[in-house]
Amino acid sequence: MKISFDFEKPLAELQQQIDKVIQIEDKNKLDMSATLAELNTKLDDARKELYGNLSGWQKVQISRHPERPYTLQYIELMCDDFIEMHGDRTVGDDKAIVGGFASINGQTVMIIGHQKGRNTKERQYRNFGMANPEGYRKALRLMKLAEKFNKPVITLIDTPGAFPGLEAEERGQGEAIARNLLEMSVLKVPIICVIIGEGASGGALGIGIGDRVLMLDNSWYSVISPENCSTILWKTWENK
Hints:
By secondary structure, the chain is α/β, with parallel strands linked by helices. Helix content is about 45%, strand content about 20%.
């Protein structure tokens, strides 16, 4: 079991015991099913106990877990078909936001969401899930397309915030997000927004106005990240 956070170590220790028992069973041709069943029960109980009593900060950490599913994984698992669409028709294609028409149980929908990466190369390619103005304009273009064909919109939100770089500001980051808020509030088709991980500030709001706003377990939705809030109030990240 891959451990990402210190508080997950008890689970890793139990998993190591299970792996050792399996090795002994295979090597010595022994029947250790009773021992394995007992250890698996302990692991399940420990997992329920651990994740059922997380602190606020631990929940934030879980929302950023490197093995947590991202938008494209959810699309792959719940959609029969998906046709990704690219570009804002002005600047370019922002890889931090993906979207396109999809089919769920025979219903055609427009799915739009933030996309992060699994490794360093992918994270750089996806800009760590932080969208530029062209990402929000691409999202709006796809929403307008869904409205034209009378198809509902689903947005999957998972971002540490909109990209704060100078280039993004020069291309109208604030205007792009504000425009999305205005247009989504009057869109003539249903919008369902789901926070699947991090939901930070305007970066989340840019695709987060809907008829229903849902949150998965161990996700968060806030005007600012805990670290940045701590820095503003106490000049340190330690009080996050």
